[in-house]
C-alpha cells in the first residue's frame, strides 16, 4: 500500500503532484476542535470570510484555471468557466442561506411568539468527483461554512492538486486552518470518513455505485446527514422542429461538452423516426469538426482527453460491447494516441438492441434510439433507473407539457441542453441520481437543521381547565 498519492496530467501522462496520504482521524479531530468557535461566530463574520474567499479566488483565477485544465484535461476555456462558478457560488450561497435557512419569527394564537432558527450539524465530510474538482466540492463547502459547520474535504484521488489549491484559498481568506482540512487519499480514506463517529454528515458528489456504498454504510444512523449527488443516463428527445441545425447543436453540446464527463451530459438521443436521418447527419457533421486536443492547444479544442487511460479503455470497450449486441455504429470512437486518454466523440444507434444497458457511460458516447410516436419517446426517456436531467428539443407547448408532466428527473428542459445547470436553482436528481437532497441553491437545506422555539419574555402562565377549586377557608391568613 502506497503512503503517497500521485496525480497525473491526462493530456501528457506527466506527473503533476504528489503528497502523503492523510491521517483521517487526526484531521477529523482538528476540524472537530475548531468547529465550536466557528459556529459561535456571528453570521456576518462567516459571510465576510466567504466574500474574502471569492476575492482570493479572483486573485488566482488564472492559476486555478490552469491547474484544473492540466489535472482534469478539460480545455482551458472550460476550466475558466469552472473558476467563474466557484466565485459565483459565494453570493448565491449567501442569498440561499438567508432565504432557505435564515431566521423567521411567527406569531401564533393568543400572541404566542415563535422563532425558527437553524443550527449547523458539526463536521461535514465533503467527497468530491474528478470532473469538476473545484466547483462541485465548493458547492457543498461554501454553504456548509456559512451555516457554521467544519469541513473535512477529500477531493477525488484523480484531482487532488486542485483540491489542495482550493483548501489553500479558503485558508488564505481567513478560514481557520483547522476548520477546513484537506484529506489526501482515495476510496479507503473515503470509507474511513464515512465510518468516523465524529463526522456528522457526508456531502457526496460522484458515481451511483459509490453513493450506494455510502448509503449502506450509513444504515441505522438516522442522525447522520447524507447528500448524494450522483450520475445520470440522461435522455435528450428531439421532436418535430423545422430547425434541425439548431437541434443538432443542442444535442452535440449536451453530449460532448467536457468530453461528455458531466453528470448532466446527454447519453441517449431519442428521436422521431422520420427526423432521425437528417438530424443524425447534422450531428455527425458537428462531431466530425470537434477538435480534440491538449487543454492549452491553439486553436482551442472543444474537448480534451477523458480523465485517464482506464476511462478511455472502458469507453472504447463499451462501444464494442454495444456493437456486438446489435448496436449500429454511426461514428466510431477513435483513440488517436495509444498511451493517452484522448477519445473522439462517438455515436451508435442502439434502437435494435434487445437489452440496452442502463449504465452511465461517462464520456463522449451518444446512443441513438429511434421511436415512432411521442408516447414511445417518453417511455424510452424514462427507461432508466437514473433521473438527473432530460431535455425536449422541438415539439409544441402541448408536447412540452406532456414531457414535463411525465419525465422523472430533477432537471427537465425545453429547447435547451441537458447540461449547463444554474447554481442559482436547485440541482439534484431522483432514482440512482440522488437522494432527494438537491444541491446548488438548495444546498443550504442540508447544511443546517431547523430549531423552533416558543418564546416569551416572562414566565407568565395558567393551567387553564381541569383543576380542583381552591378551598379558600382552609388557607391561612
Ligand atoms: N450529480 C452531480 O452533481 C454530479 C456532479 C459531478 C459528477 N457526478 C458523477 O460523478 C461521477 C464521476 O466522478 P468520480 O468517478 O470521481 O466518482 P467516484 O464515485 O468514483 O468518486 C467520488 C468520491 O468518492 C470517493 N470514494 C470512492 N469510493 C468510496 C467509498 N466506498 N466510500 C467513500 N468514498 C469513496 C472517491 O475517492 C471520490 O472522492 C460520475 O458518475 C458523475 O456523473 C455527479
Ligand atoms: O457534472 C455535473 C455537474 C454539471 C453542471 N451542473 C452544475 O454546475 C450545477 C450547478 C451547481 O452545482 O452549482 C452542468 O449541469 O453542466
TrEMBL record:
UniProt xrefs under NCBIfam families: arg_catab_astD, PRK09457.1
Protein family per UniProt: Belongs to the aldehyde dehydrogenase family.
SUPFAM superfamilies membership: ALDH-like (SSF53720)
Keyword Oxidoreductase: yes
Protein name: Succinylglutamate-semialdehyde dehydrogenase
Residues annotated as signal peptide: none
A biological process term (GO) from this entry: L-arginine catabolic process
Pfam families in alphabetical order: Aldedh
Entry GO MF terms: succinylglutamate-semialdehyde dehydrogenase activity
UniProt keyword list: Arginine metabolism, NAD, Oxidoreductase
Known EC number: 1.2.1.71
Family annotation (InterPro entries): Ald_DH/histidinol_DH, Ald_DH_C, Ald_DH_CS_CYS, Ald_DH_CS_GLU, Ald_DH_N, Aldehyde_DH_dom, SuccinylGlu_semiald_DH_AstD
Aldehyde dehydrogenase domain: residues covered: 4-445
Active site feature: 229
Amino acid at each position: 500500500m502506497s503512503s503517497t498519492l500521485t496525480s497525473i496530467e491526462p493530456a501528457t501522462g506527466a506527473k503533476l503532484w504528489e503528497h502523503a496520504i492523510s491521517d483521517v482521524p487526526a484531521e477529523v479531530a482538528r476540524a472537530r476542535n475548531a468547529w465550536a468557535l466557528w459556529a459561535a461566530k456571528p453570521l456576518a463574520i462567516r459571510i465576510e470570510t466567504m466574500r474574502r474567499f471569492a476575492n482570493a479566488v479572483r486573485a488566482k483565477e488564472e492559476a486555478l484555471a490552469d491547474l484544473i485544465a492540466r489535472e482534469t484535461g478539460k480545455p482551458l476555456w472550460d476550466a475558466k468557466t469552472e473558476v467563474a462558478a466557484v466565485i459565483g457560488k459565494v453570493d448565491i450561497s449567501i442569498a440561499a442561506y438567508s432565504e432557505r435557512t435564515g431566521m423567521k419569527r411567527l406569531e401564533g394564537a393568543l400572541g404566542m411568539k415563535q422563532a425558527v432558527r437553524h443550527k449547523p450539524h458539526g463536521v461535514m465530510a465533503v467527497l468530491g468527483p474528478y470532473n469538476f474538482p473545484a466547483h462541485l466540492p465548493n458547492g457543498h463547502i461554501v454553504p456548509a461554512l456559512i451555516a457554521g459547520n467544519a469541513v473535512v474535504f477529500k477531493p477525488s484521488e484523480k484531482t487532488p492538486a486542485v483540491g489542495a489549491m482550493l483548501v489553500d484559498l479558503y485558508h488564505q481568506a481567513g478560514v481557520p486552518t483547522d476548520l477546513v482540512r484537506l484529506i489526501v487519499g482515495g476510496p479507503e480514506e473515503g470509507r474511513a470518513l464515512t465510518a468516523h463517529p465524529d463526522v456528522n454528515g457526508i456531502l457526496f458528489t460522484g458515481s451511483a455505485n459509490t453513493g450506494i456504498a455510502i448509503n449502506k454504510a450509513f444504515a441505522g444512523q438516522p442522525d447522520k446527514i447524507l447528500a448524494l449527488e450522483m450520475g445520470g443516463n440522461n435522455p435528450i428527445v428531439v421532436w418535430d422542429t423545422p430547425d434541425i441545425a439548431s437541434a443538432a447543436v443542442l444535442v452535440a453540446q449536451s453530449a460532448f461538452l467536457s468530453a461528455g464527463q458531466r453528470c448532466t451530459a446527454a447519453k441517449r438521443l431519442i428521436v422521431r423516426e422520420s427526423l432521425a436521418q437528417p438530424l443524425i447527419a447534422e450531428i455527425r457533421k458537428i462531431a466530425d469538426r470537434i477538435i480534440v486536443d491538449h487543454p492549452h492547444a491553439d486553436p482551442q479544442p472543444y474537448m480534451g482527453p477523458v480523465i485517464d487511460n482506464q476511462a478511455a479503455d472502458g469507453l472504447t470497450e463499451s462501444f464494442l460491447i454495444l456493437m456486438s449486441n446489435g448496436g449500429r455504429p454511426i461514428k466510431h470512437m477513435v483513440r488517436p494516441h495509444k498511451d493517452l486518454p484522448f477519445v473522439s466523440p462517438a455515436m451508435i444507434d442502439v434502437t435494435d438492441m434487445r437489452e440496452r444497458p442502463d449504465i452511465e457511460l461517462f464520456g463522449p458516447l451518444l446512443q441513438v434510439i429511434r421511436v415512432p410516436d411521442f408516447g414511445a419517446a417518453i417511455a424510452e426517456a424514462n427507461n432508466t433507473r437514473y433521473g438527473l436531467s432530460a431535455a425536449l428539443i422541438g415539439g409544441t407547448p402541448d408536447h412540452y407539457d406532456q414531457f414535463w408532466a411525465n419525465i422523472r428527473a430533477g432537471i427537465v428542459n425545453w429547447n435547451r441542453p441537458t447540461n449547463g445547470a444554474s447554481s442559482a436553482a436547485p440541482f439534484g436528481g431522483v432514482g440512482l441520481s440522488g437522494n432527494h437532497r438537491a444541491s446548488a441553491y438548495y444546498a443550504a437545506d442540508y447544511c443546517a437543521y431547523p430549531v423552533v422555539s416558543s418564546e416569551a419574555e416572562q414566565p407568565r402562565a395558567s393551567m387553564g381547565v381541569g383543576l380542583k377549586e381552591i378551598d379558600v377557608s382552609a388557607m391561612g391568613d
